[in-house]
Write a structure and sequence with these properties.
165 residues, mainly alpha, Recoverin, domain 1, globular, membrane, PBP_GOBP_sf
């Protein structure tokens, strides 16, 4: 038969792809907003991320537009937008005080978000590993931007998208 692919298998694959894309949206948002500090039993929400972003907006002098770009998974280009990301990442320990990626915290997030799905966890781990290896500038705002850029590139390299559906 030319089309013997079972509908159950097709539906299963579609559900997996949908979950993977949604999880990658969350991981990117988590990196961008450093939500890893939420306790494992707490629900990770976009609302919480938005609250933290607005707190950091006040601390860094970022604009509402900078926050809106962040929430839409768009790269920030102004210094204030980069500092917004640095602030958020530090608040949630994704970035340490030296401006380096905290791989352990990032991998904890991966484990929580992948809900023990080995395939999804492996994809997330690859992204974390790749971005942990990059050289970043000493300026913490620029370092946060470098990590964000790496995450975006890796997600696209894996054939995934962060666009809202």
């Amino acid at each position: 038969m030319c089309c013997s692919y079972s509908s159950t298998k097709l539906i299963s694959n579609l559900v997996f792809v949908s979950l993977t894309v949604n999880m990658l949206r969350l991981i990117c948002l988590a990196f961008l907003l450093a939500i890893v500090a939420a306790k494992p039993h707490e629900e990770i929400t976009k609302e919480h991320a938005s609250e933290v972003a607005h707190e950091c907006k006040e601390e860094t002098g970022a604009t509402d537009e900078d926050v809106a770009q962040l929430m839409k998974h768009e790269l920030g280009e102004t210094h204030e937008a980069k500092c917004l990301r640095s602030c958020i990442m530090k608040k949630f320990e994704i970035m340490d005080d030296a401006g380096k990626l905290n791989k352990e915290k990032a991998l904890e997030l991966v484990k929580v978000m992948s809900k023990d799905n080995e395939e999804t966890s492996a994809s997330f781990s690859e992204i974390v590993d790749k971005c942990d290896e990059i050289e970043v500038p000493e300026d913490h705002c620029d370092a946060a931007h470098a990590y964000e850029t790496c995450i975006h590139e890796q997600i696209h390299e894996h054939g995934l998208s962060l666009e809202e559906q």
